[in-house]
Amino acid sequence: MLRLSFVKKFSTKTYDTVIIGGGHNGLAAAAYLAKQSKTNKNPQKNILVLESRHIIGGAAVTEKRFAILIFAIELYPGFKYSRCSYLLSLLRPQIINELELKKYGLKYYLREPWSSFTPLKNNQYLLLGHDRQLNYEQIKKFSTKDANAYAIYEDWLASMVRGVNPLLDSSPIDLASGLSMKNLAASLKQIGPPLNAIKELGVKNIGSFYELLTAPASKILSQWFESEPLKATLATDAVIGANISPMSTGSSYVLLHHLMGELDEKSGAWGYVEGGMGSVSSAIAAVAKDNGVEIRTNSKVKQVLVETINGECKVTGVLLESGEVIEAHTVMSNATPKVTFLDLLPEKGTLPDDFLKAIHGISYSSATTKINLAVNSLPNFTCLPNKENNQPCPHHSTTIHLGAASLEELNEAYKESSLNQVPSKVPMIEMTIPSSLDKTISPPGKHVVTLFVQWTPYEYFSTTNTEVNEARKSKLASDVFKIIDSYCPGFEKSIEHVDVLTPPDLEKEFNLTGGNIFHGCMNLDALYFVRPTSVHAKNPGQVGGYRTPIKGYYMCGSGGHPGGGVMGSPGKQAALTLIEDLRK
Q1: Phi, psi at residue 333, to the nearest 5°?
Q2: pLDDT, tens digit, for every residue of 212-267?
Q3: Where would you tag: which of 108, 131, 193, 511 has the fewest CB atoms within 10 A of its CB?
Q4: Region of residue 388 (left: phi > 0; alpha: psi -120 to 50; beta: else)
Q5: How confident is the model at residue 41 (pLDDT cuts 50, 70, 90)?
Q6: How many domains does the chain have?
Q7: Is residue 401 in a domain?
Q8: What SUPFAM superfamilies is this protein classified in (predicted)?
Q9: Are residues 315 and 401 both part of a single domain?
Q10: Does residue 53 sit in the same domain as residue 180?
């Protein structure tokens, strides 16, 4: 009997840095390392990004091919899906400018004049956008009091966002190392961003800011407004992507997190990227390649290689599933904390016990399903009929809120799913139609529709019986389509192709632990200097969650500060942290 031996193949060169994961944060880390190391006394000349999938982008990806057995066949010619993330706003404006992403092909479409559309069963609807007079007229249909309060509410939220901005663009304070007079310069550098945040907020607003961080969104919204259509519409930003209710403590921060972005200096603006969200990743990758970065796809990392010398554990490279060993002085992981520390490292002897316990304690609870659709006609809403056959109207380019339509209904949907571990009968559905503005992602006359469906538990779709899981996915999709049909009759008949990604699918396809799109829940116990945990390496000079207890091993993904979304900040700050370390 012939026996095959597993032979490790060694790469021909040693890299300065290997980055695990070609998502947007990993690519941003590579781009910043390559660009800024040109002025560093220890430049990063050889940088390698390893992506396990056939395509770069991670969750910020555009796909048009679907695998059948061993062949990749374009089943629905002309359709391109942003399979996971689907809107742009949170990508930091400094990153767009510093990396010159527009020069490298990034183009997006702002949604004007409306950005939000909530159809109601009584043939009414609520439209919201950036025009204050138009917002006033829309909200007045439900409450004059709320119409008068809305602009003031927007200004108040904007002031809270200004207070957060200095923290988003810097590394968090490292309380483990402490602040000392002995190293005054380093201490002042650490406390600079928090002081700037306080300055932007103003001392008188700190109480309001604290309440916004800790309170349920329902409390904040009810203090400002009385009409349920308005409150429910705004509350969707407090729960989207998170397994919480608008009545959950801390849900107001999730609301704030989704309002932190801007496009073209318009605070809170969201837009569609031409060619899908993969164009964001492609633009960042182009910058990285232009600065000498090597990017490899179909290169799954099996293990991060480490060695211990004189009691100090440090990285030496990575081992690929193919058996190839790639040596490196530094390794960065764009994966979730669970993958970074529990899956890729040897099981014993590499991490301190307290750090390991903290990593095991991270929550990845998720109940979000993404559904991508190819349709042959635009949805025609009963409350706001199409003016011309199959021609996009302004409301088609918005985020469309369907299903649960009050704070109480949203809370009941969450409780039903959480208690019974089944999908909510009346879920929260967010619909977008990116092809209403971006004509490059669908054939003429046809459209791409994306649905984000809230409270579809991970456990419900992760049975060991594949047939049961597929049947449950089909029923979920059918139930969602019936709900949409109640607002726009004939929608289900227009569907030509369905791509359903439940939480286990998101985990399998994109390596998102638990299907959590944020690389770990955005709870109050997992933000800023306690993200990913409150336990960091005890080395002097440690700054936040990018460094790890292993020398030369860094995090650069959304599991670090400031968290999830297509933001780029974790990748950038991780790169700057490494560059700072190289200067020491």
Answers
A1: -115, 125
A2: 888 999 999 999 999 999 999 999 999 988 899 999 988 888 888 878 888 998 88
A3: 131
A4: beta
A5: low
A6: 3
A7: yes
A8: FAD/NAD(P)-binding domain (SSF51905)
A9: no
A10: no
CA distance 254 to 518: 11
Is the same domain home to 195 and 342? no
A 10 A CB-CB count for 378 gives: 24
Q: How many CB atoms lie within 10 A of CB 567?
A: 23
CA distance 290 to 311: 40
Q: Tell me the two tokens of residue 409.
A: 């209904």
Give me the CATH number covering residue 289. 3.50.50.60
Q: What is the pTM of this model?
A: 0.93
Exposure class string for 341-374: b at 16+ Cβ within 10 A, else e:
bbbbbeeeebbeeebbebbeebebbbbbbbbbbb
**Residues 117, 262: one domain?**
yes
The residue from 269, 297, 319 where one domain ends is: 269
Both 289 and 324 in one domain: the answer is yes
The answer to whether residue 89 sits within a structural domain is: no
What is the pairing mode between strands 324-333 and 15-20?
parallel
Residue 564 has φ and ψ, to the nearest 5°, of: -85, 175
CA nearest to 80, candidates 97, 100, 96, 65: 65
Are the C-beta atoms of residues 324 and 296 closer than 8 Å to each other? no
Residues 6 or more apart whose CB falls under 8 angstroms from that of 489 comprise 380, 382
